Amino acid sequence: MPKKTRKIEPPELSEKEVEKIADQLPAILNSPLPIALSDEKPYCRLHDDHDGTFVGELSVSLSRDGDVWISTSPGHTLRFRMPMISGGMSPHTFNALRVLALAIELDNEYHPISKP
Predict the structure, then answer these.
(1) What pLDDT score was predicted for residue 9?
(2) Cβ(107)–Cβ(113) under 8 Å?
(3) CA–CA gap between residue 106 and residue 86 (Å, rounded)
(4) Where in the sequence is the domain holding 85, given as residue range(s)?
(5) Residue 29 in 3-state DSSP?
(6) Is residue 29 part of a domain?
(7) Is 23 among the domain residues?
């Protein structure tokens, strides 16, 4: 799926808007989320405390069958299967990981980390 081009950073929400969304999070995570994400590249983000080593990355990847993979580098890879179709048993976690992939994409776009 082609990447959407964003012109400006998404606006911040008011405290009242944030509270309303927080109240709705259980329902949001209980529903399939129509987030446009690519299955052709991992969504990766370097952690904040790398102390100049540029080692330690969080990665969220989507496979063509819809499953979500999360890994740390160096570390392990974990698979969360698509609920109902692939036998996934963690639908809330599955949806949250898809939101995490979008969050990584936004951070990389608006707050890039310059590697040497």
Answers:
(1) 76
(2) no
(3) 28
(4) 38-110
(5) helix
(6) no
(7) no
Confirm whether 14 is domain-assigned: no
Residue 57 lies in a domain: yes
Note the pLDDT of residue 109. 92
Of the candidates 74, 41, 42, 39, which has an alpha carbon nearest to the alpha carbon of residue 57? 74
Write out the two tokens for 59.
Answer: 């990665």
- Mean pLDDT, each 10-residue run in order, the chain (116 residues): 60 92 91 88 93 91 93 90 88 94 94 85
Six token digits for residue 9: 């950073």
Please give the C-alpha separations between residue 33 and each of 7, 8, 53, 94, 112, in angstroms, as whole numbers.
23, 23, 35, 10, 26
Provide the domain count of the chain.
1
pTM for the model: 0.83
How far is residue 7 CA from its own chain's centroid? 20
The residue with tokens 């102390």 is 51
Look at residue 2 in the predicted model and tell me its pLDDT.
47
